[in-house]
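Course assignment 3, question 2. Fill in each field.
Student: A.L.
Task: Predict the tertiary structure for the chain below.
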Amino acid sequence: MLLLGELALDGSVRPVPGVLSMVHGAREAGIGGVVLPAENAHEALVLDGIEVYAIRHLRELGDAGSGLWTPVKSGFRLGSAGKRAMVESSADDYADVAGQLTAKRALVVAAAGMHNILLIGPPGTGKTMLARRLPSILPPLSESEALEVTKLYSISGKLGGGSGLMETRPFRAPHHTVSAAGLIGGGGVPKPGEASLAHRGVLFLDELPEFSRSVLEALRQPLEDRQVTIGRARAVYSYPAHFLLAASMNPCPCGYYGASGEPGCSCSPLKVQQYRSRLSGPLLDRIDLHVEVPKPDYRLFHGAGPQLGSADMREQVREARLRQLKRYAGAGLHSNSELSGYRLRQHCRLDADSEVLLKQSFEAYGLSARAHDRVLKIARTIADLDGCEAIRLPHLAEALQYRCLDKREK
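Answer field:
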């Protein structure tokens, strides 16, 4: 029997964070029952195979052999298909965004392969609207993913009272003043930061160059390893951080570099260069898609007819994800963004024409080895969206179009 909780001087039992992880560990260790604060019962009830006894005061323990104890019944599981459909219908819809078909297509590619994406454009073009609607086209959490996410929120003390497993993918949007510890995690006893709280969901960084350089560089490890490691004198803590990074930025400090019409850019070339240099090359290498979001045409707001919405985009993502799950069954992979090494070479083979195009682009734009691999993974996802098992020349050409920052540097 495992006993959890904070005992007050008057005998009352107060709730504590991290109960789900502790109960899960107890079950794995063969412990058959757990006594915990009543306020934490909803966390423990998401697990089968262990009896849960909820108390509010020490006097309620009584005599375990007297028959007075009754385990709390488990009843929390992922919702029904009808409930999920209701959640999807209540989410923000891409139909609210007029036009921007290129950006929407790029977001479908990002969601289908879990690729990181950077939206670049003047103020008011819809970058934030586009990014905030990304969860509406992601597939629903599986039960194992939901358990991972719920554990992290339990450890952080952010799990709402009375809720079971989290059913929607996280969307975290920290302000640009966030510290490195707030983003990555930290503290005397380290707790998960925003990167881990976005696990299996979306981490949105609006106005990316406004974040401090040290904060952005701290993202490099979780973007590469999909976990956060925090070292302390007494222990080393690791938290999962497998998220889709969505970010936005203006093309220059005033925001209107390269934009047509008024007011026009007032920045000098030096200011534009300094602004963009806030993002290091290694960080940009870890962002798969760099997509320009131009100012929309006025006609799109009046009489343009129905806009491409989340339902159609979500169906495209679902079919592409199913192809990936089937292809990587038994390999421990879930999406194309996780490909590396021999599996990348195995599943991202190119024909002769595609090899020539990639070689020319690699030399013309000075792509790094990491950017080269990410182009291949994007092309693999585009082929999946097209229903093709082989990567063709149009798939690779489209993937190269999503590296606009590489082209600008040359």
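Instructor remarks: DSSP finds 18 helices and 14 strands in the chain. The radius of gyration is 24 Å.
Grade: pending
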